[in-house]
Amino acid sequence: MTMNEETLRQGLVTVMREMDASGLNHGTAGNASARLGEHFLVTPSGIPAGQLTPDSIVEIDLSGKYEGSFRPTSEWRMHAGLLAGRPDVNAVVHCHSQYATTLACANKPIPPLHYMTAVSGGAEILVAPYALFGSAELADAVIATLKGRRACLMANHGQIALGRSLPEALMIAREVEVQASFYYGTLAIGGPTLLSSEQMEAVVGAFLSYGQKPVKPD
């Protein structure tokens, strides 16, 4: 096992435990994956976050072939399809966070009520159509909804976030839940005042230069 694989296995355990501890997830709900060369690592089926270990993380190829005594999450098709079709993505996080799932169950996309909805890669956070968990139909619906985006809600199910790394995917999932809570709250007091498309375009442009950038040597 390479150092990179060890790091990714531990990273998946850490992400699942952090989601559980922060309330983004609970019990055996949710799953996460990380790219590993031509294969990927994914969390196993039916094991609570507190019982996960690096050894219980499953290595699987894009066709679903795996070895070992642990079965991969039933949602492996969704992870495989996203990682296969999105070279810009190295990690996927799926959870059943309270506010995002509430809106998903009401089939309510999150509109641009706050500039940070742009963390999803678009002005609003869309809802993927419902399909049975673990099915190819659900994988196809989520992949289509996430085209060019980094997060969406999943109707009557939860939310999903993509990142260049596990920490980034988790950060986006956290922000989706925050935005969902804002929207839920504004619905209780008459609804939000939305930002315009021009204002959201300016946000997306500002995001391109936000944060720390590598300094070029003189």
Task: Map the helices and strands.
Elements: H1 3-22, E1 31-36, E2 39-42, E3 58-60, H2 76-85, E4 91-95, H3 98-105, E5 127-128, H4 136-145, E6 151-154, E7 158-163, H5 166-187, H6 197-207
Parallel strand pairs: 5-6
Antiparallel strand pairs: 1-2, 1-4, 2-3, 4-7, 6-7
Helix pairs in contact: 2-4, 3-5
Characterize the structure shown.
By secondary structure, this protein is α+β, with helices and mostly antiparallel strands. The protein has a single domain (about 5-205), classed as L-fuculose-1-phosphate Aldolase. About 35% of the residues lie in helices and about 15% in strands. It is built from six helices and seven strands. Helix 4 links the parallel strand 5 and strand 6. Helix 2 packs parallel to helix 4 (about 135-145). It starts with a helix and ends in an 11-residue tail after the last helix.
Intertermini distance: 39 Å
CATH superfamily: Class II aldolase/adducin N-terminal domain
CATH architecture: 3-Layer(aba) Sandwich
Q: What are the low-pLDDT stretches, counting only 5+ consecutive residues below 50? A: none
Give the mean pLDDT.
Answer: 95
CATH fold descriptor: L-fuculose-1-phosphate Aldolase
Helix content: 25-40%
Tally of distinct domains: 1
CATH class, named Alpha Beta
Q: What pattern of helices and strands is seen along the backbone?
A: HEEEHEHEHEEHH
Radius of gyration: 17 Å
Number of helices: 6
Instruction: Provide the structure class.
Output: alpha+beta
Shape: globular
Largest sheet: 7 strands, mixed
Count of individual beta strands: 7
